[in-house]
Amino acid sequence: MVLLSTRKLFRVRDWGTCTVREAPVPDIPEALLQPLQAYLDGLPGFDPAALYEAQGAQAHEQHSYATFFLAQVCFRAGTAGTEA
């Protein structure tokens, strides 16, 4: 998703047909894409010329770690102050 976003493409699911298509969003401001591009530039093993499916194992592994840690932070922020 992040890689497609930097190319101004987003995946859209049609729940009625259970299909996914890529939708171009040419008018998205570059200021919104810059943080995504910076993330990818710093991702070990990322190849900007390759599509998602063709990224190496290191890029997928590092992205999984980042996703996991972000999910933990969001979960903890959402449950903060709810301890009995």
Number of helices: 3
Any idea how many domains?
1
Tell me how many strands there are: 2
Mean pLDDT: 84
Strand line-up of the largest beta sheet:
1-2
Gyration radius from CA atoms, angstroms: 16 Å
Helix content: 40-55%
Q: Secondary-structure element sequence?
A: HEEHH
Report the major sheet.
2 strands, antiparallel
Task: Please give the alpha-carbon distance between the first and last residues.
Answer: 38 Å
Uncertain parts: none
Structural class: alpha+beta
Strand content: 5-15%
- Shape descriptor reads globular
Descriptors for this entry?
two-stranded antiparallel ribbon; 84 residues; 48% helix; 14% strand; alpha+beta; 3 helices; 2 strands
Notes on the structure:
The chain has one domain (2-79). It is built from three helices and two strands; from the N terminus they run αββαα. It has helices at 2-6, 30-41, 57-79, and strands at 9-14, 19-24. Strands 1-2 form a two-stranded antiparallel sheet. A hairpin with a 4-residue loop joins strand 1 (9-14) and strand 2. The longest helix has 23 residues, at 57-79. The chain starts with a helix and ends in a 5-residue tail after the last helix.
